[in-house]
Amino acid sequence: MKVKIVVVSDTHGDLSWLESARHIFDNADCVFHLGDVVSDAKKLEEKLSCPVHYVAGNCDIASGADKEILISVGAVKIFATHGNRYRVENDLYALSAQARSVEADICLYGHTHVADVTNFYGVWFVNPGSPSRPRGFSKKSLAVIERDRHGNIYPYTVDLSALIK
Fold first, then answer.
1. 95 is a domain residue
2. Domain range for 56
3. What helix, strand, coil percent values describe the chain, rounded to 5?
4. Measured between alpha carbons, how far is 77 from 72 in angstroms, rounded to an integer?
5. pTM summary value
6. CATH of the domain at 39
7. Residue 6's closest CA among 154, 145, 125?
8. Is 164 among the domain residues?
């Protein structure tokens, strides 16, 4: 079964990039918003024709949203968190321990505003960066995860800088 997942994080109230990047969401089975700001996830759900799963970030304390979720999409088990609770700005060791303890295939995290895809101890770790407030030398970005009919998982980041004027 083929699966397509789009991942965004750290939008901080700015969805101005969405219209330019809307085609990336075509045929998505679902979207994950990894926090900072949760209300943007609700706006995405209104604008897109697929479910939007979301978690609270460190700036979303009053939202009442879960800090982490574990969801299966197709046959893919996904652990999603903002990342601040696991100090992802330092390394992925604590996050990796949690992802492995829940037997996740993919671990989604944000917080750093820097896109990254890596396989760590057999788990895919995907940080979509930020489509509105990238940090350092990073560019505006989001992530896409595709699973082919053979079960192979292909996560990648999408540089939005050429799309957003």
1. yes
2. 3-159
3. 20, 35, 45
4. 4
5. 0.96
6. 3.60.21.10
7. 145
8. no
- How far is 37 from 141, CA to CA, in rounded Å? 16
Residue 50 falls within a domain, yes or no? yes
Contact 27, 2 (CB under 8 A): no
| In the predicted structure, residue 107 carries a pLDDT above the cut 80 | yes
- Residue 61: the pLDDT is 87
Please give the distance of CA 151 from its chain centroid, rounded to a whole number.
Answer: 20
Structurally, how many domains does the chain consist of?
Answer: 1
Sorting pLDDT into bands at 50, 70 and 90, what band is 147?
A: very high
b/e for 112-136, b at 16 or more Cβ within 10 A? bbbbbeeeeeebbbbbbbbbbebee
In this prediction, residue 162 carries a pLDDT of 84
pLDDT in tens, 41-75: 999 999 998 999 999 999 998 899 999 999 999 88
